[in-house]
């Protein structure tokens, strides 16, 4: 019974995140006029990654492993995006998606 509930929860979360991401992808437009403060942006990306990592620990500790897993993916996504943009000084292509 527990396994069935896990798969139902997984299916619900997948459906939710597919819909949210598809909607977000449809709304994204490239902002060619943006001016970025590199230090401020790097601090923001790192802050978001740390917050999602903290959230992941919280959800894991309360037994919600599925949401913890999702939060970990968000955390690493912020790190990957920051690395890809060059906001972070990283060289590990196994941990980060780097520009070639």
Overview of the structural elements:
By secondary structure, the protein is mainly alpha-helical. The protein has a single domain (2-85), classed as Substrate Binding Domain Of Dnak, Chain:A, Domain 2. Helices cover 71% and strands 0% of the residues. It is built from 3 helices and no strands. The chain is globular. The mean pLDDT is 92.
Reconstruct the topology from this structure.
Blueprint: H1 2-27, H2 38-61, H3 65-85
Helix pairs in contact: 2-3
Offer a concise description of the structure.
The protein has 100 residues and is mainly alpha-helical. The chain has a single domain, classed as Up-down Bundle (Substrate Binding Domain Of Dnak, Chain:A, Domain 2).
Question: Keywords, please?
Answer:
100 residues; Substrate Binding Domain Of Dnak, Chain:A, Domain 2; 3 helices; 0% strand; globular
């Amino acid at each position: 019974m527990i396994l069935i509930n896990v798969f139902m929860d997984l299916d619900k979360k997948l459906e939710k995140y597919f819909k949210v991401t598809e909607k977000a992808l449809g709304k994204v437009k490239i902002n060619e006029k943006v001016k970025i403060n590199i230090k401020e942006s790097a601090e923001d990306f790192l802050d978001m990654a740390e917050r999602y990592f903290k959230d992941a620990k919280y959800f894991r500790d309360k037994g919600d492993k599925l949401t913890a897993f999702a939060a970990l993916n968000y955390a690493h996504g912020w790190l990957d995006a920051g690395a890809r943009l060059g906001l972070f000084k990283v060289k590990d292509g196994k941990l980060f998606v780097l520009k070639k």
